[in-house]
Design a protein that fits this description.
- The complex is a heterodimer of chains A (220) and B (792).
- With 220 residues, chain A is an alpha/beta fold.
- Chain A has one domain: P-loop containing nucleotide triphosphate hydrolases (Rossmann fold, 3-Layer(aba) Sandwich), CATH 3.40.50.
- Chain A is 35% helix and 27% strand.
- Chain A contains seven helices and nine strands; from the N terminus they run E-E-E-H-E-E-H-E-H-H-H-E-H-E-H-E.
- In chain A, helix 3 crosses helix 4 and helix 5 runs parallel beside helix 6.
- Chain B is an alpha+beta fold.
- Among the domains of chain B are: 177 residues, no CATH class; 142 residues, no CATH class.
- Chain B contains 22 helices and 18 strands.
- About 3% of the residues of chain B have low confidence.
- Classes of the chains: A alpha/beta (220), B alpha+beta (792).
- Chains A and B meet through helix 2 and helix 3 of A and helix 12 and helix 20 of B.
- Bound molecules: adenosine-5'-diphosphate and magnesium ion (MG).
- The site of adenosine-5'-diphosphate has 10 residues of chain A, from helix 1.
Amino acid sequence: MSAIRLNGVCKGFGDGARHRRVIDDFSLEVAAGESVALCGPSGSGKSTLLNLMAGLVPVDAGTLILGHDGRSHDLSRLGESERTALRRRAVGYVFQFFNLVPTLTVLENVALPLALNRLGQRVPEARQRLEALGLGDRLDAYPEMLSGGEQQRVAIARALAHEPAIVLADEPTGNLDARHSEEVAQALFAEARRLGSALVVATHSAAVAERADRIVELVQ
Amino acid sequence: MKLLLRSFVRFFAQTPWATLTAGLGIALGVASTVATHLLGLAVSDQLGASAAPHLRGVTHIAERADATMADYFDLRHQWRQGKLPQVEWITPVIQGQLVEGERRYQVIGADGFRLAARDSSVSATRNSIAADATLERAPGAVLQLAGERWTVAEVVDAGLEDALFADVGDALALLGRPADHLSYVALSLKAPLDGVRETLERLFPGLAAGLPADVGQLAGWTVRPVASVRPEQQFGNAVLFTRGALGLLALVVAWFIIYQICVLWLRRQQLLMTRLSALGVSRGELAVGFLGAIGVLAGVATLFGIAGGYGLAVLLLRLSMAGIAAPPAMELSAIVVVKALFSGFAVALVGAGVAFTRRAPGNLQPPAGRMAVRWGGVVVGLALIAAGLTLEETGLYGGFLAVLAGCLIATSWVGPLLRWLRDALERRGSEGGHPRSSATATTRNGLLFRLAMREATWHEADLGVAIGALILAVGASVGIGLMVGSFERDFMRMLDQRLAHDFFLELRDRDGAALARALREAHPGAVAVPLGERSVRLHGHTVEIGYADFSGAETARYGYAPALGLDEALASEALLKALGLSVGDSVVVGGKALRVVHEFSGFGDVVPRLLIQAEAAAVRFGALHYDRLGLSGLPAADLERWLAEAAPDVVVRQRAALRTVALDVFDRTFAITRALTLVALIVAVAGLYNAMMALRLNQRASVALLRALGLSVGEQRWLALMRGSALGLVAVVLALPLGLFIGAVLCDVINPRAFGWSVALSISAADWALPMALGLAAAVAASVLPVPEESA
Ligand SMILES: Nc1ncnc2c1ncn2[C@@H]1O[C@H](COP(=O)(O)OP(=O)(O)O)[C@@H](O)[C@H]1O
Ligand SMILES: [Mg+2]
């Protein structure tokens, strides 16, 4: 069973004359443990695709199936609240910026998905992961006190804390310089591999894309 | 430059909802300003119109023992010579009682009261008088007085019962006094504060009424402000002042809100500004663009506010005057418009300017030194409160200054309380000195609760002013509600006591004692108590002496159980205050001493009252005249049958009807007050919603993030609910003590100083719970209600 399967997915925005189809008849399959890089120019629909996979926005047509707990879930047939519940459990999401809740500390940000999934007992493990990521002395810091690279590493720890079957990352290194970009990408791929999660990364960076098992090029 | 302004104005168009609410907030603030001003003016006009004719324009009266006309002419001579520069004009007044058969009149003589008949059908060149409306005589009516015929040339609505106004000579003739008799001299004194008083009155109608009256001085004379001889004017002044002070409160709340809106507005434009500044637009140009844009918004909102405020004032006045009198016409004077423009326009610009010069939303730590300033402010505030409450001379201003200081202290603690709450919550998470991280909440509700609390307590800069305004509005509503409620309960208790008789008969010119005797003979079960009164002057005060057979049942009507002894008296609170006496002291009336054994509250009595046994009155005043008969123990039908034969002209008033009338007056007095506090509350709620909306717009990214983490709609709502409840609780927790304080000051300080009676503060849940619940609900609603642009 694959972790993600898109079949003839369509998505557009705007009504009437202003309607514009952003994703047109798109198909893709990602196996469990596999990593895929989504590449393409700005506006080609990378973020939209990730949002569709996360169930943040509904598909217009086609099927979008997530594999989780040995079962297939067809997002196109789920309502908003069911998609939310599935996302909470099965998906980890890393954004380009504004990844962390500003009023929660580093550790609390990472504990949030655990708490939401009633996995509070796993907080000590999450703590160890943060330490392994070199953030052991920043556990009680608030996000605004962290550098961009540190923030992204926390975001990665948070996206993977509840060991989701699917990890989605939207230009996770877009805001970072080459050296930090390298560190963050390394952490992201290593963590996903360690947990056997399927990873989809939207990126402009060739260095990041090269780490993926497969590269999918989107055209405008 | 034009392009810059266009970019700012276009920003409005792109955020229509936020623009609408910001405009609505400003318009509401302006509307409340306009409405309170117009209402204050309307009430002022009404009270001013009923001034007694002989005292129009009079500021002071001067008295001396055994004064004669010669003394007056001497005074006038000095004045003409320019030796009394503070005196603007001066006139003699004659005052006394005329008993004509069973009827008593109060005769008032003043210079220049030789009346030419207004009504051309009345030829009244000689022996013409003016009659107070309470005498119910039409112009042209003829009265037989002191052996002569007198024609009523004019009816005046002076509010003085049974008063006749005449020229000095006529008054002396009517009263049978010698030609050189003088009661007192009425003066108009210039005071150094007159300019201030006038300006203040024009800006805040009613507020000048609370200024302490100037103490005039005239060698050899005792000079007193006119209010001391006209207690009803004092009552009116106090009502006016309370109205004025409430108007000021509404204005302050409105300014708070308008200021807050501008700060938030700026916050929302930060991104646009950063971009423009990156393009090389200077800070000055940005300021002009920003201020210009807010000016456009404020200008439009102010116009709507003026129209809305006018409508609100007309509506409130109609409602509170319904069925009583035609509401006075209101017009938008230049002053109102200027005040509205200032409130809407200038406050908006000043707020925007301040916001622009110190824009730094990062506010995790309070700037050092702030706490010292705050504590200093608290000390000064407490000193002001102590001075205002203990120094009787500070009058109404002292009382309201104390209230104001209380408000400032309460609102200045919003920030610290939010921070303290945040720290307390953090400490709870790290008990026993463990680092916090080891005790991180790991349950879903625990973590969400913590998140909600931080969201509530971290945005002090965004929400502080709005919460402050909510505290003011809720606190004032609680305080005023407690006062009105306490007053109502006290008043009802008094009514129940006073209206112990089933009927009160207005005797007109009949002999009350004889009528009571006849009634008891015809109906042995009936209790009939003749009641009479007479006004005398005691230590320079006009005092009403009430007399009756004060057996135990009759004294119970004043809350005193035993029968009254011949040398004992019951005194109203106003009398004790006016004469500086307390229970147990003696007061000399008619050459003989009376001991005050009990004090009673006389809400609505404008004149100080002393109650004595009828026999004690007879010893002092000779033959007694009774005005009313208190009657119980007789069915209405029997009474009417008997009256139809024995005394058809007597007017019967039933207890229930009297009660209704009294409560009606009470309701009318407080209807506008309640409406005004409601206006302040609505403005505060709108302000909070505004602030909350801006905050939530700023947190859009945060919301998107939580959604991506799988937070359900229900959990997001729960988060908002918790946040709103926390903010509402902070507001309410600070508003409750403030409200209790305001209520206590209103009951124990402002009421006695303003009206001469104190109200026993009784705390009923309904009075404080409703505004508190409203405040809490407002905070929750502001937090939970949808923000239309949030989902965009
Ligand atoms: N919520 C939305 N409403 C309207 N248009 C959208 C929305 N989200 C994305 N788009 C449009 O869809 C297109 C693809 O956007 P996006 O998926 O963000 O591209 P990418 O991430 O590859 O840069 C863009 O033209 C964008 O304007
Ligand atoms: Mg994108």
